[in-house]
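Lecture notes, unit on binding sites. The following record was shown on slide 14. It pairs a sequence with NAP.
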Amino acid sequence: MRNIILVVAKSNNNIIGNNNKLLWEIKDDLKWFKELTLNKTIVMGRKTYESIGKALPNRKNIVLSTDLNFKPNDVILYENIERLLLENNEDLYIIGGGQIYREFLNYSNKMFITEVDTNIEGDTMFPIINEDFWFKILIKEINKNSNNEYNCKIYNYIKKTNINMKELKNIIKLYPNDYDLGSFIRNKYNYETHIFYCYIKQYPNNYDLGSFIRKLF
Ligand SMILES: NC(=O)c1ccc[n+]([C@@H]2O[C@H](COP(=O)([O-])OP(=O)(O)OC[C@H]3O[C@@H](n4cnc5c(N)ncnc54)[C@H](OP(=O)(O)O)[C@@H]3O)[C@@H](O)[C@H]2O)c1
């Protein structure tokens, strides 16, 4: 199964930008974003591309625009989402902006949301998420310092409908011992496109992985 992954940094009040610019400088979040998307396919709207000003290096850059006169030579252009999805079967990292997040929300099965701890004014928002449909897991904290303007928390969201809950619950019952459960999950789901892959990497110890999965589900 391929993943469609929204990646965003948003304020407490859901603001992501103003005047086609970002509103903060958080170097550790940019570093995290780079590690996450390097050598992957990123998708952005025409306005976000113009705000960045160039393709991001070492990634396949796809830009959506309906403007036939818009022809930058360092990205792949698409005029609509359907064709983009059809012709690019790999994991897609959707990197903004507001309009693009809104349009891809229903296609996505994963999100990485950096919650920037501020309330701020701006003209572009991230859509409101119905948290009932997502598992939300804290994966990283960033402290305010000279590199990072605000405290942040990075969360991974996984859409509930994309996990075969019946199968998973049976597996959890079958392995009452956390170590055995972790070992089973590691062997069964240890491939990059699976939603458990990042937890398998995050918990190198089978006991911790099993205990995490049991608590989560
Ligand atoms: N905080 C973050 O994580 C983050 C990340 C990215 C961006 N941002 C911010 O978000 C803001 C930009 O967001 P935005 O909502 O104004 O613009 P956007 O989503 O970046 O781009 C919108 C443009 O994309 C094209 N587009 C959208 N849907 C399309 C579709 N289905 N088919 C073809 N083309 C489509 C259109 O281009 P045409 O008009 O050319 O047809 C549209 O005008 C900036 O302030 C930026 O800094 C923040």
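Take-home: The chain has a mean pLDDT of 93.
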